[in-house]
Amino acid sequence: IGPIGAGREKRRFLRYWRLIGLFLAGIKSQFTYARSALIAGWRLGLPVFLHDQWQDYEIHLVPPFLNYCYLPLAIPPQMHNPFATTKLCALGLEANATNTSAPTPWGPLLAVEERLDKPIPLLGFAAVVFAASAFASASVNKL
Predict the structure, then answer these.
(1) For helices 8-22 and 33-44, what crossing angle results, to 10°?
(2) pTM for this one?
(3) How many CA atoms, within 13 angstroms, populate the side-chain half-sphere of residue 124?
(4) 3-state class (DSSP) for residue 12
(5) What whole-number distance in Å separates Cα of residue 23 and Cα of residue 27?
(6) What is the DSSP string of 44-86?
(7) Are 13 and 56 in contact (CB under 8 A)?
(8) pLDDT tens across 44-69, in order?
């Protein structure tokens, strides 16, 4: 949805490429494996990026995630309706998000890394350390 900044966003960008690297052999052999990589990243809660000529953008995925479609050619005098249901697509128009998983252990580890890279776990950890030290000092003073 927006261009990549610095710091945490660059780490998220590298995490995306590490996820793609897990599926790269399959993607090289068949384009359709890219959908499996995107579904795995979506299920793990990892970011997805889109590259154009000038910059990279973080995007939010929705099913069917990825497809390659084109419209059939209508030979005159017929006219083709682009909003009709007749489309020629490489993949199905419905993506099965329940039948895809990330390779273990690297896929789940990328998801854990994504969660821990946010500021909330760090603040939670700091709050637990503060509370533990406060209670420990209070109990030592009572003795």
Answers:
(1) 140
(2) 0.67
(3) 7
(4) helix
(5) 6
(6) HT--EEEE-SS-EEEE---TT----EEPPPPPTT----TTSS-
(7) yes
(8) 888 888 888 888 888 888 777 777 77
